[in-house]
Amino acid sequence: MRPIDSNSRRKHRHRGNELVEFALLLPALAMFLLAVGQGAEVMGTYQILCNAAREGARLSVVPGEFGNPNEIKARVVAYAAANGVTISATAVTVNQDEIVNPGAGACSATNACISASKVSVTYSYPISVLLGATINMGAAVEMRNFY
């Protein structure tokens, strides 16, 4: 008769622990990976909105485009659509009479205010994977007028 190794008995007793731990951690790992993926998608969409607003603001300050907010809105919508984000023209606001105060205090000869154009974009991003809710995103870009 052979002696029974106490180490092998211990291994035999704990053989199923790894499977139980894996079964418990797998859903948590899957939720973590879904959250990371959803977060990356949200950040990508936000970057597209920022770039679309920047494109609209850039077009707004070009001397020949002043007073054409519909064309500016169309450019913002087209930029977003080309990158996979669908927004409507009503979600874009164009203000070509924005006054920017670069310093502190009131506008004066020593603290001259700057005329600028501001383009804002709003978007409701649906989070369907994790929560089934929406996040309201917005981006606003202001550029100095060159006219």
What does this structure look like?
- There is one protein chain.
- The protein has a three-stranded antiparallel sheet, covered by helices on one side.
- The protein is α+β, with helices and mostly antiparallel strands and 147 residues long.
- It has one domain (6-144).
- The chain has helices at 6-13, 17-60, 69-82; strands spanning 92-100, 114-127, 133-144.
- 45% of the residues lie in helices and 24% in strands.
- Strand 2 and strand 3 form a beta hairpin.
Uncertain stretches:
none
Structural class: alpha+beta
- Give the mean pLDDT: 83
The helix content, as a percent range, equals: 40-55%
**How large is the radius of gyration?**
28 Å
Helix/strand order = HHHEEE
Characterize the main sheet. Answer: 3 strands, antiparallel
The proportion of strand residues reads 15-25%
The shape is: elongated
Number of extended strands:
3
How many domain units?
Answer: 1
- The helix count comes to 3
Strand order of the largest sheet: 1-2-3
Measure the end-to-end span. Answer: 101 Å
